[in-house]
Amino acid sequence: MGVFLIAVAAWLARVEDWRSYTPLAGGGTVGGTAEQYVSEEKPSGVIRWLTTVDHKDIGMLYGAYALIAFAVGGLMVVLMRIELADPSMTLISNTFYNSLLTSHGITMLFLFGTPIIAAFSNYFIPLLIGADDMAFPRINAIAFWLLPPAALLIWAGFFPIPDVIPAQTAWTMYTPLSAGVGSGNQVNAGVDLMLLGLHLSGVSATMGAINFIATIFTERDEKVSWANLDIFSWTILTQSGLILFAFPLLGSAIAMLLLDRNFGTMFFSVDGGAILWQHLFWFFGHPEVYILVLPPMGIVSLVLPRFAGRRLFGFKFVVYSTLAIGVLSFGVWAHHMFATGIDPRLRASFMAVSLAIAIPSAVKTFNWITTMWNGKIRLTTPMLFCIGFVSNFIIGGVTGVFLASIPVDLVLHDTYYVVGHFHYIVMGAIAFAGFAGLYYWFPIYTGRMYQVTLGKWHFWLSMVGTNLTFFAMILLGYGGMPRRYATYLPQFATLHQVATVGALILLVGQIIFVWNFAQSWLEGREVEDGDPWDLADDDLTTAEWTWFERKLETAVTDGGEDETELATDGGQAVDDADADSADDA
Fold first, then answer.
1. CA of 423: how far to CAs of 100, 143, 159, 206, in Å?
2. Where does the record place the Cytochrome oxidase subunit I profile domain (predicted)?
3. Would you tell me how many other CB atoms lie within 10 Å of the CB of residue 342?
4. Contact at 8 Å (CB) between 336 and 400?
């Protein structure tokens, strides 16, 4: 894989003039004038998607990739839940169950969670901040094209490849199991391929993070200051900073594990190696949770006020709480390790920080609720998903506070309670915010409107299915049911069956979503107004809708220079003098 990537880079360096890029929106070029290098129009068909460096196209590619991964990971877990409807092994083997367990977790976190956020941020960050494109368009494209081979490597064990079986290490890849120690089947190349795929996905995320930081710092329109930067851009900026510090550590730990597995080194195969892996992994793994949840918080903070008929309450405090979560997230990793026997003084300090990080999350929650209070609420599909996000996030957050307490964690560690808590955040919050964004911005990237009734069916089935499935898991955890088991004692059967019914309801909801999404994209009612949500009535129009209206008026992909004020959700648009004073402040 490394040789292949080097060959691609060499070929690009040989045939490409790297100074030739001119954004479709207009603007300057690097190393030459616009007259020297002109990009007249995009190619058509497959070539367009294979060669594009337009941030909107790359956002669409990220979105398609993430939704495919979401479908694959979802079907994996449906099969697991059907197996768990019966206490004994009836449908699939325990080995295959462990394979699905591992691949489901990695798929949803690395192949769906991070890319779906990148889809929104690639498409909308330049529009929101008034930039022509990303700071490094070609690096942006390279970051995406690292992901398809990453997925193939992660799923390689499920392909009919001789002597390669899927990894069965769970998504945490704990040593010594993942190091191939002993006579188990984890010595096989399927684990190595999975680790290489994870490595590629981490490189992709790191390249994207550098690009977003550079774009937000250097490509903002002169009217967009730090004082009125929109909340979604703030969350992406914070997330990118977390990625920049967290993902390289995961890459280093994976490289050490690959050396242990293939070259006989002893990083994790000695006394204390298992604890070392956990420290390295969770130093990445807990910021990863906030890497995944901060941008969805930004989406909700941007979308929810639009349908509450008022601006986001306490905008500055939402920004400050975002930055506080980013800083504190690097000081909580060992709360995953309370049961490992680490020094009690260290455990106490991590408990304190883990409890403290709940405060900025609560600040956001109260700001969302207060924004809705006495507002002119319109229960559109995006708004329903935002409200669902808030309610699920409260349940997921409160259950997490209990796990931050050492005595409670020692009882509930590695039970289904942890699974229920985590999935309330990942599915009940992150995915719900993703759906809110997909429905809210659907007119922009399709030019059409989805079927409203089907959208609301999607929400209610998802809401009911999420709470049935994951609240049953929380109760299973209270009963002492351990996680990661394909078989279990008969007394847990009823709650497992409730969780399975909830998972099937979720499946039906997602099938409706896929049908609505595809059919509306192809045949939905065309949007003729640049303000399909009537945001102008409450003076809540943001920059991307201004761009969309200009696009409809001029019938081009992106329109040249614009003299109108850039309104963000951070406050009223400001003139140059105000922007200068805000920057000075």
1. 16, 28, 28, 25
2. 49-533
3. 15
4. no
526 bridge partner residues? 448
Running DSSP on this structure, what letter comes out for residue 330? G
Question: What is the Cα–Cα distance from 37 to 34, expressed in whole angstroms?
Answer: 5
Radius of gyration in angstroms for the set of CA atoms belonging to the chain, rounded to a whole number: 24
pLDDT above 50 for 173: yes
Q: Taking the mean position of all CA atoms in its chain, how far away is CA 150? A: 16
Is residue 40 within 8 A of residue 79, CB to CB? The reply is no
- Reported as a pLDDT band with limits 50, 70 and 90, residue 579 is very low
SS (H, E, C) 275-323: HHHHHHHHHHHHHHHHHHHHHHHHHHHHHHHHHHCCCCCCHHHHHHHHH
Q: Which helix (H) or strand (E) holds 525?
A: strand 525-526
Q: Which range marks the domain in which residue 215 is found?
A: 48-269
In a domain, 18, yes or no: no
Does 35 map to a domain?
no
Q: Total structural domains in the chain?
A: 2
State yes or no: pLDDT of 64 exceeds 60: yes
Round to whole Å and give the CA distance between 531 and 540: 10
* Same domain membership, residue 327 and residue 240: no
For residues 537 and 546, give the distance between their C-alpha atoms in angstroms, rounded to a whole number.
14
Q: Tell me, what CATH number does 212's domain have? A: 1.20.210.10
Does residue 428 contact residue 388 with C-beta atoms inside 8 Å? Answer: yes
Question: Does one domain contain both 257 and 301?
Answer: no
- The pTM score is 0.88
Token pair belonging to 58: 């790359």
Where are the strands (E) in 140-291, listed by range? none
Has residue 558 been placed in a domain?
no
Q: Does the residue 534 lie in any domain?
A: no
CA distances for 308 relative to 400, 450, 520, angstroms: 28, 21, 26
For 302-333, the pLDDT digits (tens) are 999 999 999 999 999 999 999 999 999 999 99
Higher pLDDT, 1 or 300: 300
Cα(477)–Cα(485) distance, rounded to whole angstroms? 13
Please identify which residue in the block is written with the tokens 């909801």: 509
Same domain? For 204 and 103 the reply is yes
Tell me, what's the pLDDT at 69?
96
Residues 160, 88, single domain; the answer is yes
Secondary-structure percent of the chain, ordered helix, strand, coil, rounded to 5 = 70, 0, 30
Structure tokens at 226: 């730090």
DSSP 237-259: HHHHHHHHHHHHHHHHHHHHHHH
Q: Pairing state of beta strands 525-526 and 448-449?
A: antiparallel
Q: What is the mean pLDDT of the chain?
A: 89
Please tell me whether residues 127 and 237 are part of one structural domain.
Answer: yes
128 and 179 fall within a common domain = yes
- Give CA–CA dist 402/491, Å, rounded: 25
Please indicate, yes or no, whether residues 481 and 399 belong to a single structural domain of this protein. yes
215 plus 310 within the same structural domain: no
- 338-372 pLDDT per residue, tens: 999 889 999 999 999 999 999 999 999 999 999 99
CA distances to 228, 429, 575 from 579, in Å: 8, 35, 6
